Amino acid sequence: MELMTEENFYISIGELMRNQQQRDDDGQNHQHQNPTQIGHQPNLYLLNRTDDRNQYHHIAVKLQRAAVLGKEKEVVKFLKEVGPSMLKWAITRGHETLLHVATGAKQTALVEMIIGHMEDGDLMLQDRNGNTAFCFAAAVGATKIAEMMLQKNGSLATRRGSQNKTPLYMAVLFGKRKMAEKLYNNQILRDDLTVDDKTDIFFKSIDTGLYDFALKLVKNNPDLARARTRYGEKTALHVLAPQPSAFHGKSVHNLILRILNLNRNPAIELVQCLWLNITRQQPEVNIIDIIRTPSELLFDATKSGNFGFLTEIIKVYPDVIHEKDKDGRSIFHVAVLHRHSDIFDLIYQTIYLNKELLLSFVDSSHNNILHLAAKCQNLPSVSSEKGAALKMQRELLFFKEIEKIVPPHFKDMKNNVVGEQQLTPQELFSKEHEDLLKGGEAWMKNAATSCLVVATIITSVIFTATYTVPGGTTARGDIDDHNSTVAEGSPIHLNKTLFKIFSMSNVIGLSFSTISILMFLSILLSGFAEKDFIWFLPLKLFVGLVTLLFSVISIMVTYSSTYFLAYPYHERLNWITSTTVLLVSVPIIICAQVLFPLLGDILLLLYRGIRVCFLKPVLEKVHDLLEMVHDFVVYI
User: Fold this and answer.
1) With the C-alpha atoms ordered 74, 80, 82, 86, is the resulting torsion angle positive or negative?
2) 91-104, pLDDT tens digit by residue?
3) Contact between 207 and 239 (Cβ < 8 Å)
4) Strand runs (DSSP E) across 515-584, as ranges?
5) Closest CA to 13 of 160, 152, 129, 111
6) Residue 208 in contact with residue 242, Cβ under 8 Å?
7) pLDDT tens column, 591-618
8) What is the mean pLDDT of residues 35-57?
9) Which CATH architecture has domain 1-186?
10) Domain residues of the chain, as ranges?
11) Cα torsion 147, 153, 158, 163: sign
12) Does the pLDDT at position 8 exceed 50?
């Protein structure tokens, strides 16, 4: 629904339904649409009055507005002036009646009043696309309106609409879960469904994310597990394989279901039901055919990172892990190639199979699994130099992880790509990541250069401030606040707290800024080897940025203490003191806002590098030690 000018006041929901239905399950236009039978056409009196266009605008447009906004008084006024016959008139270009428009706007009270003035048969009136008002109710999910209409005329449930589709299909098409459930529970409508109807509704419910409804359908109709889409010949498993978001609970409905029942995910339950139906009812030859045709669903799921889908498939039928794609790669290899470590961990850690045998497979180009970990072309495009540094480290860590689990001779094995030089995994990694390394190096150097300039300026300012004593020094014979003679050349404010703050902030600021300079210089002088991106360079950059931030804070504290020593407004709280503190805080806040996002990225780099290089090996050794202790205790 959309309110516009009176010339174009009502946007027909019927047109929207027609456009939606012109797309098939594969996103292609239907080659042959089912014919729409329009047996109950509304009166086109207003639309055919070419001699008096004012009549159309006076009645039709005003009725549209009244229906959309739910203005019962205006409708009643027209009923008194024109009579109940106007309820049979088409009031839009799409031949929708007043009931169609009010239903599409979900104006329940108005619809109830209109139905009360109509004959039972008048509810069967269809728009230009063949949709009854009941079809509109199904499409917008107006359950109360649908109930009122069915009470008036029960045959509406089986009256088909645009493209000969059932109201149930339209509810599913627009993702109206409650409406779909209610209509499916209608025995008359369910008995009217053909095999093609059930298939179309089933696949459309998957497309629109109504996985719990699709599960109900397949439980009542087990043959749907093997059904294929009209265009593309896909099974439901093929449709679900490249949809990882369905298994991660990202939709609001799925999230709510998982909160209420932590073990329940409709998409996972649907896959379980589909896969059990197939494996129990089909011989192994047919199972393999289903897996491979029209595409290899296991590899579709692996490429998209659909961890939940693969978990259920492998759990029920572990032998699928031996499947290979057209390039001779197993799920292991494809998971590594596309950097889906969770899938790789699933296969490697939870499946009790000969993993060494699976790891030893080489593809048609003689690439072992370490060669695939060295490849770079399947990564998302790098949009910035910072992104290059982050990706470079992630790639290095992933490569090192795979390197730990492969047989030692794999590291020296060369591939055999036609027309290219034979390379070991390490050589291939260096070649594939050459541009990524350059991008990461450029980002590190630019960041270090910019920060080095700032750190140098801060150092010079603080160094100068160290020899500029606030308030000056004492002369011979000067006495302090306690009437004691002070030494000549001593700072006048020596015993004041603010002077101590001034002194300490100078020392801290100079130390931090000097450390910052040294860190950034060491980055600029670095050789930028691949291994340096793991933790060495991120650590230097992190220390440099943190010390730079503290040096900025120190210089502002130094300034503040000097200011209040010279102008002692702080002795009483007033607007000058408040304004000074506020303005001094602004540079610190801006500096923090600029540096914190960068610090976050660097901290992530540093954490991943330290975890893989130091923490993980230590934890593995602790785990091995605990196992040895356990075995020893059991032996005793």
Assistant:
1) positive
2) 988 899 999 999 99
3) yes
4) none
5) 129
6) no
7) 788 778 878 877 877 787 777 777 766 7
8) 72
9) Alpha Horseshoe (1.25)
10) 1-186, 194-323, 331-432, 451-469+494-635
11) negative
12) no
